[in-house]
UniProtKB/TrEMBL annotation, chain B:
The keyword ATP-binding applies. It comes from Limobrevibacterium gyesilva. Residues 4-238 form the ABC transporter domain. Transmembrane segments: none annotated. Belongs to the ABC transporter superfamily. Keywords: ATP-binding, Nucleotide-binding, Transport. InterPro entries: AAA+_ATPase (IPR003593), ABC_SmlMolc_Importer (IPR050093), ABC_transporter-like_ATP-bd (IPR003439), ABC_transporter-like_CS (IPR017871), Mo/tungstate-bd_C_term_dom (IPR008995), P-loop_NTPase (IPR027417), Transp-assoc_OB_typ2 (IPR013611). This is ABC transporter ATP-binding protein. GO terms for cellular component: ATP-binding cassette (ABC) transporter complex. It holds the Pfam family ABC_tran. GO terms for molecular function: ABC-type transporter activity; ATP binding; ATP hydrolysis activity. It comes from the Bacteria.
């Protein structure tokens, strides 16, 4: 007799192979195949790395990754230390800054910074002209440092969260022990506290580095006009007519390998728990008294907050209600036209909003459903080799979104599957891409439900399915809603995977925003960004209400 | 017909045998404890009885019907049993009353009767006034009572408990021990109780099965387990004891440095000479300042007090029989005071000398 659990297991394997293994294997195969012929070749790799321009893009990506993670450390570590260890005032503000930087999609932040620091009419430069009386530019966002800076402003929360949670585990006694031996506060912090959290800082750096090299939106919006080519924008160019998937596949391989290697080493590093977590229990924690320095730290947090969240959002807000954003704040420059045009007259805007909402909802539902089943089966050891299932469910974590998208394109766009231009290919790609998020939250939720909770119901006469419905489901509902919302939110703003897979009728808001940015109409662009942000905010609000204040921050 | 019968019950995980040929029979209404050190397979045995784990070999029968064997396992929900878990497993999203009513609902009781039974049982476990509370608002002991009520309200054919008291503090544990026995005396459910705490097992059980490395070493009523352990493991695991090596030869029992007549201590010493091991509890000996009149008929010898500790309930003397390297612990009542260095007469109670190997 075949057990139902076995059937579900087999079905899940098939689904996961289709979602995860299929695209990746196809990508690998295509990269070694003479297009459409089925014969083996290295030619694609020769093409992909045969031009200085392509190699330079690869180098640019790496340097950009290093630069923006260094900047992100600079932004985040003092903030994390201040919030976790000191008596700095206004810690709630830091929380808003971090949440804000998380919630604003990176490409919107990039557009905000174009309005702020564009070389000619950017707000900062305009103010500078007015102060200095010259017409030279003070700052230019269309530059390599500008690009790194904007990316770091978006990604520093990753490091902040890593480092803060590590610092939260260091007991004050660690520092006291150094103090008693004669080290002052500064020395104790430098010699004891920071080394203790160093693995977390490094872990955060790796994540920011990886996010940077896999990022498409910001490099496309800022880098392309500045003639800075990186891996992701180069991949995009391989997709311009005539589409050269096989070269793109070959070109994407280093990105994939770097990601896998770094995530692997990060796991190894954080696995050396000896460092922090064992000191977590007991030890009392007292905030360090900073005296006047606390205002300096507060100023730093405020500055990062202004740069990352307040300034770009304000300038976008202004632009979205302006006839011409460069004319600044004045009554006769105010208009609602940008919004009304998008909503009532633009041919794609409403469709893309609708697409975004339902693709994201469908992907979130699928991802949570698959993830929950896998997590349940693995967690309750219902089948042998459950590890295979969880490996497949977690694998997309080491696949950059853009690589996954190219894999989906290679595997399923053309016949026989023929999903090109359909909603399905986007939904499936989003599902696969965000499966690890859903899986992590499902696993955490199920771990919190002691198996004895279920067994208590079984022994009283309730079958397995009834037990899941009446006992398990109500207990995990809250965290599942949290997981669903996170997947929805990240899917609704996903650009790098979407841009390779959309057809003329299946554009999403993120893709349309990118289209608008290419057209250069910043007022409409800002208004559309405002709509996207509003939708996100509403969802984040719902999530906080249902799943707790920090539900977004727990996604790692 | 006995209620529950385990025959040669065996479970292996990979290469390790965790439960090894357990035979156990429970009569209707009997309360049996599985007692043993951590990792000896108690929980695994209990979970096989409940149907959560399939046996590798052997079988489980209830009322003559086979429930588990390597060929197939009746799932837990169809065994009409109840179980109390170490974690209590009270569902946090349901009130106390809803928790208790869960099993009754599955049995499709009419609403009136259901409410009546829930009220009744909550009264019995003294939780009536907290029926509408949620578990998070209860203390550990109260949660334990809810778990008890939830398990017995369905009138199970067998009640299973897995270290139900191990999460409570010492006082509460003692109180709940008596509570569990009181409920058993009231309802007489056939009960299997897993614990590694011997006092708990002694206070609650009709019989105790001492487990060691997956096997039942001895199955006996509590006081015999204490006074007549049958294996060295049981002697050492239950209470404190003195282990004495001896040689049976020609009607004599030769210990190190002294010997007794075999008949005197009730041992059959026929056959070839052989080495044996005795377990003698500290309470199985007594000390005299002068030998009693009929001393020669009793197993008795001269000894020296070489150490002592006052434990409140009794003295714990360390005594060395003269001419022997042995050191024995002997318990004596608080008013029987001997100084270190004093010469005494040490008498053995033959009924409390257990042959353990
Ligand atoms: N699913 C399993 N897979 C592998 N080994 C197991 C499994 N379940 C139990 N074991 C092993 O079987 C042995 C006995 O476990 P069991 O839980 O029955 O012990 P126990 O007597 O209840 O101990 P404790 O008093 O610590 O609860 C242990 O060594 C345990 O590691
Ligand atoms: Mg156990």
């Amino acid at each position: 007799m075949i057990e139902p659990a076995t059937l579900i297991w087999v079905a899940l394997i098939v689904v996961l192979l289709f979602l995860v293994a299929g695209p990746m294997l196809k990508l690998l195969a295509v990269s070694f195949e003479r297009l459409g012929s089925g014969t083996f070749t290295f030619n694609n790799y020769l093409q992909a790395y045969g031009r200085a321009r392509y190699l330079e893009a690869l180098g640019n990506s790496l340097v950009l990754g290093v630069a923006s993670s260094a900047l992100a450390v600079l932004f985040a570590v003092p903030m994390a230390w201040a919030v976790s260890r000191t008596d700095m005032p206004g810690k709630a503000l830091v929380w808003f800054v971090v949440m804000g930087a998380f919630v604003v999609p990176p490409y919107l932040g990039a557009i905000g910074w174009i309005l702020l620091a564009g070389p000619n009419s950017g707000v900062i430069n305009t103010v500078w002209h007015w102060i200095s009386g010259t017409d030279s530019a003070l700052v230019n966002i269309y530059s390599f440092p500008g690009l790194a800076f904007v990316i770091a402003l978006h990604s520093f929360p990753l490091i902040f969260i890593f480092v803060k949670s590590a610092l939260d585990l260091v007991s004050s006694e660690m520092e006291d022990a150094a103090n008693i031996l004669g080290a002052g506060t500064a020395a104790a912090t430098r010699k004891i506290t920071l080394p203790l959290v160093w693995p977390s800082i490094l872990g955060g750096i790796i994540l920011v580095f990886l996010e940077t090299v896999a990022l498409f939106g910001t490099p496309a919006i800022i880098g392309i006009p500045a003639r800075i080519n990186v891996v992701t924008t180069q991949l995009w160019q391989f997709f311009e007519y005539p589409v050269r998937v096989e070269v793109a596949a070959a070109y994407a391989m280093p990105l994939l390998l770097i990601t896998m290697a770094l995530i692997g080493s990060q796991k190894l590093m954080l696995a050396r728990k000896g460092y922090v977590s064992q000191t977590g229990k007991g030890g009392e924690r007292r905030p360090i008294r900073l005296g006047a320095w606390r205002w300096a730290l507060f100023g730093w947090c405020g500055l990062v907050g202004a740069l990352a969240v307040a300034m770009p959002l304000l300038v976008l807000l202004q632009a979205s209600f302006a006839k011409a954003w460069g004319r600044g704040l004045s009554f006769d420059n105010l208009t609602l036209n940008n919004y009304t045009f998008l909503i009532f007259r633009h041919e794609m805007a409403l469709i893309s909003i609708w697409n975004t909402l339902w693709y994201s909802a469908a992907a979130a539902t699928l991802a949570v459903l698959i993830a929950l089943l896998v997590a349940y089966i693995v967690n309750r050891r219902l089948v042998p080799f459950g590890g295979v299932l969880s490996f497949l469910a977690m694998a997309p974590f080491v696949i950059p979104g853009i690589v996954m998208a190219i894999g989906f394109y290679a595997a399923y766009a053309a016949p026989p599957v023929a999903l090109y231009g359909t909603a399905a290919i986007l939904i499936l790609a989003f599902t696969a891409r965000f499966l690890p998020i859903a899986f992590a939250s499902s696993t955490a939720a199920l771990r919190a439900v002691h198996p004895e909770m279920e067994e208590a119901a079984r022994i009283l006469g309730s079958g397995r399915l009834r037990t899941i419905a009446q006992i398990t489901a109500p207990l995990v509902r809250k965290s599942l809603i949290g997981g669903w919302l996170i997947v929805f939110i990240v899917a609704s703003r996903e650009l790098s995977a979407a841009i390779f897979l959309v057809g003329p009728k299946t554009r999403t808001m993120a893709v349309l925003l990118y289209d608008l940015s290419e057209a250069g109409n910043f007022e409409q662009l800002a208004a559309f960004g405002g709509i996207l942000l509003t939708i996100t905010m509403v969802l984040v609000g719902i999530g906080m209400k249902l799943a707790g204040r920090d539900f977004m921050l727990r996604r790692m | 017909m006995s209620r529950l019968r385990l025959r040669g019950l065996t479970k292996t995980f990979g290469a390790t045998t965790v439960v090894d040929g357990v035979d156990l029979t429970l009569e209707e209404g009997e309360f049996v404890s599985l007692l043993g050190p951590s990792g000896c397979g108690k929980t695994t045995t209990l979970r096989m009885i409940a149907g959560f784990v399939a046996p590798t070999a052997g079988s489980i029968e209830m009322d003559g019907q086979e429930l588990s064997s390597p060929a197939g396992v009746v799932p837990p929900e169809r065994r009409r049993m109840s179980m109390i878990f170490q974690s209590y497993a009270i569902w946090p999203n349901m009130t106390v009353a809803e928790n208790v009513a869960f099993g009754l609902k599955l049995r499709k009781l009419p609403a009136d009767e259901l409410r009546q039974r829930v009220r009744e049982i909550l009264g019995i476990v003294q939780m009536g006034h907290l029926a509408e509370r949620y578990p998070a608002e209860l203390s550990g002991g109260q949660q334990q009572r809810v778990a008890l009520a939830r398990a017995i309200v369905v009138k199970p054919s067998v009640l299973l408990l897995d270290e139900p008291l191990s999460n409570l503090d010492a006082n509460l544990r003692e109180e709940m021990r008596f509570e569990i026995r009181r409920l058993h005396d009231e309802f007489r459910f056939t009960t299997v109780y897993v614990t590694h705490d011997q006092a708990e097992a002694m206070a609650t059980s009709d019989r105790i099965a001492v487990m060691h490395a997956g096997r039942i070493e001895q199955l006996d009523v509590p006081h015999l387990l204490y006074t007549r352990p049958r294996t060295r493991f049981v002697a050492g695991f239950i209470g404190r004891t003195n282990l004495l090596q001896a040689r049976l030869e020609g009607g004599e029992v030769g210990f190190t440095g002294f010997a007794f007549n075999a008949a005197q201590i009730g041992i059959a010493a026929e056959g070839a000479p052989r080495d044996v091991l005795f377990s003698v509890r500290p309470q199985g000996m007594c000390l005299h300042n002068v030998p009693p009149a009929d001393a020669s008929q009793r197993p008795m010898l001269a000894a020296d007090v070489i150490g002592r500790t006052y434990l409140g309930e009794c003295w714990d003397y360390m005594v060395a029989p003269r001419g022997s390297a042995l050191q024995l612990r002997v318990a004596a009542p608080p008013l029987q005071v001997h100084d270190v260095g004093e010469s005494v007469w040490l008498e053995f109670d033959p009924r409390q000398m257990a042959l353990v190997g």
